[in-house]
Amino acid sequence: MAPQNTTSSSSSSSGSSIPDTRPTYTDEQLHNALLNFYGGSSATTKNCGHIFGFGNPHHEMSMLQRITATTMLDYESKLNEGQDAAAAAITELLEQASTFHAAHGPIIPLQAIIQSKSPCMTLAAEFKRASPSKGDIASHLHAGEQACVYFGAGASVISVLTEERWFKGSLEDLREVRLATTELANSNNDNNDSKQQQQQRPAILRKDFITTKYQIAEAAASGADTVLLIVATTPFHVLQELITFARSIGIEPLVEVHALVELDVALSAGAKVIGVNNRNLHTFQMDLVQTEKVTEELTKRGLTFHHDDCLKDKKPQLSVCALSGMSSAHDVDRYRNVGVGMCLIGESLMRATDAGVAIRGLCLDPKEYAASQSVSGGAYTGGTKMIKICGLTNPSDALVACRAGANLLGVIFAAKSKRKVSVEQARDIVDAVRKFGERSDRMEIKMNESSNKDTPLSSLVAKSRALELAARRPLVVGVFQNQSFDFIKEMVDKCGLDLVQLHGSEGMEAANSINFGVPALRVVDIELGSDGSEEEKKDRTSMDTAASILSKVTSDPIAILLDTSIKGDKHGGGGTGQTFDWTIAESIQNMGLPVIIAGGLTPDNIGDAVGNVRPWGIDVAGGVEAGPGVKDVDKLQTFIGGAKKAAVEASKGF
Description:
Blueprint: E1 4-5, E2 8-11, E3 17-20, E4 23-24, H1 27-37, H2 45-48, H3 63-78, H4 83-104, H5 110-116, E5 122-127, E6 130-131, E7 135-136, H6 143-153, E8 157-161, H7 171-190, E9 203-207, H8 213-221, E10 226-230, H9 236-248, E11 254-257, H10 260-268, E12 273-277, H11 289-300, E13 319-323, H12 329-336, E14 342-345, H13 347-351, H14 355-360, H15 366-373, E15 386-389, H16 395-404, E16 408-412, H17 423-436, H18 456-470, E17 475-480, H19 485-495, E18 499-502, E19 520-528, H20 536-539, H21 542-552, E20 559-566, H22 582-590, E21 595-597, H23 606-613, E22 617-620, E23 625-627, E24 630-631, H24 633-651
Helix pairs in contact: 1-3, 4-8, 6-7, 16-17, 16-24, 21-22, 23-24
């Protein structure tokens, strides 16, 4: 059956749209391509039964299988002259690779560069314009320019997605990255008087769905130092052949596994650099525990891999890399503690307002991470980390917020609110946010048990950090006001809320997670006069107000949110559209407690709020609306973008 031609739109290496006349394939063609890859008529249920769902007549191919089969058929049509012609094409590519290396420097062995960075974590920073699960991420960025930002900030490996259809990448992207980073390293070395501290360019990884030697030779000819081989789609004998061929031309491949059964295959095939994809590429579900499971299994087998051991004379046999789902210094440290040598981070860097600042914030050096966590009892100076978009009533607005970079998505159940949602609305939003975050269940926020020695302040600081860590993937917050615990618990269970927010006069102790089964944010009202004037300033300073608030906090909430209320409102604040005196928040943070601020925030004033106060979190509802419960997309994106940009600028002074 001949492929069907279609015209659609794809992106060139510069991110612009161009006509796409590549063929499309039927499911039957895709199935047959996978079946032939696994041995055709000699294929067994054991090694290819998953392609057809083990006999399930309703089975549908996973996205991973569909992309892999499509890539194979594309290359078949490209090399349809037969095996002899393919071999000649490989020989020609290797000659091109030899010429390239003579002009621009030799291949850098992947494992060697990883081990050379110990005790610091090696960073593989990824250039990825789009993905099947997230759609467009940053299709406008230039590959070479972004790679130089990555390299300048401390990335030792640059990963480049070269798959064209779903990821909008190309081999031209890879070549641009290799040439640009080589030129930057050479320029830096020319300007460096100390010949003993010459800078090494980053290693370049071709990330694609590789099933042939031709693709490896193609990568080498374009300047790649290493390639990704995915165990989940590669038969054992083919994996062995690809590893052997790659090493024959000086490339040490990154061999990707997800499940432990795939680890067996990778080790048997001779892999030395093992990447653990925390994302299941068949289901796109994320589980950050996968990397830890693999390191635990390697330890049980007595295999050496721990990154700290690279400082010893005898290097470890293996190097382990964590792939997918990471975005913070906490993530890096989590994997550092189990011996991982490299973290691959892509989406969060592509979306970052300043990727260089984001990389420096990862604390690749363990000493930097220890220093960032050592402040105890001092002022909170970490800047804005949390963005909450509240008053959501539909999945579409929630996804806009997620894509823009919001951490918390608020749905309001308060009876008097004009943004009140039904169970069905909340459930739809939760489902959309979970799908975006590649999870199928409520996010567990891991918090250490408080000891008798902990003060409410120290407990809240620790809990705030736990929330920050969990909110790397967006969480849904249910907002309640003077409603019964039974009702709140019912909404938590029916809607799948990740945490709740108490916005009434319930009291501080009401925010204990025992009451609802999930953690709770506690709102503290900053009262204005009935006419909106800041009456409290007549009687006391912002420091007095801050001290009064701190004296009343308990260790029950997960975090504190400050919002404006109007004097005489017995039901609690919120929804006033007015700001309070932000120096109160600043004073509280100077006393050690990170806080979220709300009330009257808009795209116009968010830069001042984030830049001057540097609150731990910000919360907006009406300030980004087109009408009650309906977000204005431009305002929402401008608000989040402005907050992120201001946070970057504010951090430069610390």
